[in-house]
Amino acid sequence: MRISLILIAVFILVTNCQKNIQDDYPIQSVPFTKVKVNDNFWPGKFCSVFPFDDSDVYKIIEGAAYSLHTYPDVQLEKYCDSIIRIIELTQEADGYLMTWRQIDPSAPPTSWSGDEERWSDISGGHELYNMGHLYEAAVAYYQATGKRQLLDVALKMQI
């Protein structure tokens, strides 16, 4: 009996504390699926000096894949497919893929891109970093959609 009274008292305290916290906090979370970005800040052209920008595209595809796995969305999947097609067309015949080098092969290397030779700076050139994010995106997208296109791109990219 005594334990039951203690449990009831604890339950009432916890319930009241949670209610007070919820009532006291004026900001409520917004599901990311309800967020729409439609201003002119986001669209633009490629003008970065960072050799790891490819990874951002791969991370976005990976996130979209996780979303598609839980909340199927034909438009999102179609958009991802169009980006994946561009990635596929950008990949060189031998599988190499790093758009920072491919967009302007004559650009001098940066401290983040390695020297002029591909795969010459494995520890800091970001080629492996980008490749890892490509692999993660490819697996996630395949698991979510069953489509192999990005997975095939990833498998073709080897050192």
What does this protein structure show overall?
The model has no long low-confidence stretch (mean pLDDT 81). 57% of the residues lie in helices and 0% in strands. The chain has helices at 2-24, 53-70, 74-90, 99-103, 127-145, 149-156. It is elongated, with a radius of gyration of 23 Å. It has one domain. With 159 residues, the protein is an all-alpha fold. Helix 5 (127-145) packs antiparallel against helix 6 (149-156). The protein is built from six helices and no strands. The chain starts with a helix and ends with a helix.
Comma- or semicolon-separated keywords:
57% helix, 159 residues, single chain, mainly alpha
What is the compact description of this entry?
With 159 residues, this protein is an all-alpha fold. The protein contains six helices and no strands.
Helix content: 55-70%
Low-confidence stretches: none
Q: How many β strands by DSSP?
A: 0
**Overall average residue pLDDT:** 81
Instruction: Give a quick account of the main beta sheet: strands, pairing sense, barrel closure.
Output: none
* Subunit arrangement of the protein: single chain
- The rounded distance between the terminal residues' Cα atoms is 70 Å
Strand content of the residues, in percent? Answer: under 5%
Shape: elongated
In terms of structural class, how would the helical and strand content be classed?
mainly alpha
Q: What is the gyration radius calculated from CA atoms?
A: 23 Å
Written as H for each helix and E for each strand, in order along the chain, the element string is: HHHHHH
The number of helices is 6
What is the total number of structural domains? Answer: 1
